[in-house]
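Example 4.3 (complexes with small molecules)
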Amino acid sequence: KEYSGNSQLPKKIDTLPDVNLDNSKNAVLADKISIFEGDITTLQVDAIVNAANSSLRGGGGVDGAIHRKAGPELLKECITLNGCAAGEAKVTKGYKLPAKHVIHTVGPYGEKTNILQGCYKNSLDIMLDVKLRTIAFPCIATGIYGYPNLPAAHVASREVRKHLEKNHDAVDRVIFCVFLPEDKVIYEGILQSYFPTQ
Ligand code: ADP
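Answer. The structure with adenosine-5'-diphosphate bound is encoded below.
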């Protein structure tokens, strides 16, 4: 297991999971969750998620890194998609990336929880529709878009938990790709409460 409880974080957290934890599924679900620290463009998975902007024409941060690695064909396909609203998601091929697909989603500008929830939910729904079994998420909206890191990690974990409770048979792995040491500490601290291992 790549995560463990982190003693630096308070045990009592502000936003406890508002999901009905079906404890009988805990072992199955926790087994499908990983943290990866590093560059999402190196991951050989069915889909990496891009924290894009609504034009889908590339940008800074993780968006820039994904377009650079995928090559210009990615931008060409993105242009045919006519943009993407905040909270929605659209899928393309991965081109020169080791990932087979990119799911582009647009986070909220600022702390709009329902939009961030939509990013995770709609990305996971696409995963299901296209029959992809492995997916990696960056910390959507927590960079240039300014969503606070800890609440964002709670939203991410909660949406993934909700999705896996219903669809765990269709999913092999969900990776939380953290780029900043701060996010690693956060995810290590909270994942145990959404995906208990015992
Ligand atoms: P947003 O505009 O949605 O805030 P950013 O790209 O600015 O998106 O930031 C989202 C997260 O992606 C941040 O945690 C940032 O550190 C991280 N990030 C930046 N580059 C990469 C990368 N190559 N792989 C994974 N995560 C990345």
